[in-house]
């Protein structure tokens, strides 16, 4: 997720599962993310990932924790993941981050659709998400991938639960 946008053709974007050797790319992606996008994703500032966080985010089992990256050449330009709730195994929390230069071009939707397909294959029927109330793009994306059923709001953060589209 570099600060400068590469020439962009959606047909050149390749989705693949995240890999343990993506740690450097992921750390670089966070460093290049604007403060606004970082706060939207993590609901607070997040200057860097710790080693333990990088292991958690990249060493996934692809069953209960599925993470996909969008690659443009050798650049990681977006990442999307869901993590199954052990107490409610039919539910998973979803989170998607698109690098600032590539936002608003359909990449979030592309990742969201791929995550829905992966979730269905794994017996997940509902996505949950924690979104800032002001994050219009994320709200639209969530209602695209998961019809919005319920919303609870606390401190400006909406907790959404939706059946998979
Ligand atoms: C939220 C996010 C993942 C959306 O991905 P994206 O690639 O920018 O979005 P898309 O181009 O696929 O568009 C998704 C929807 O949002 C709408 N949208 C996109 N940018 C928007 C904006 N700035 N304001 C309002 N709506 C917007 C699109 O029109 C589309 O809605 P539609 O399907 O009803 O037409 C991305 O903007 C992002 O990474 N933001 C920072 C991190 C974040 O907020 N993550 C979500 C919380 S986990």
Describe it:
With 165 residues, this protein is an alpha+beta fold. It is built from five helices and seven strands, in the order E-H-H-H-E-E-E-H-E-H-E-E. The protein has one domain: Gcn5-related N-acetyltransferase (GNAT) (Aminopeptidase, 3-Layer(aba) Sandwich), CATH 3.40.630. It has helices at 23-32, 35-42, 51-58, 107-121, 136-145; strands at 13-17, 65-72, 75-85, 88-98, 126-132, 146-154, 157-164. A seven-stranded mixed beta sheet has the order 1-2-3-4-5-7-6, sandwiched between helices. Helix 4 links the parallel strand 4 (88-98) and strand 5. The protein is globular. The relative contact order is 0.17. The structure holds coenzyme A (COA). Residues 37, 40-41, 95-98, 103-109, 131, 135-138, 140-141, 144 line the site of coenzyme A (COA).
CATH class category label:
Alpha Beta
> What composes the largest sheet?
7 strands, mixed
Rg to the nearest angstrom?
15 Å
Q: What is the string of SSEs from the N terminus onward?
A: EHHHEEEHEHEE
* Span between termini: 28 Å
Give the percentage of residues in beta strands: 35-45%
Strand order of the largest sheet: 1-2-3-4-5-7-6
Number of helices: 5
Under the CATH scheme, the architecture is: 3-Layer(aba) Sandwich
Fold-level CATH name: Aminopeptidase
Low-confidence stretches: none
Record field, number of beta strands: 7
Bound molecules: coenzyme A
Estimate percent helicity. 25-40%
Structural class label: alpha+beta
User: What is the 3D shape?
Assistant: globular
**Average predicted confidence as pLDDT:** 94
How would you name the CATH homologous superfamily?
Gcn5-related N-acetyltransferase (GNAT)
* Total discrete domains: 1
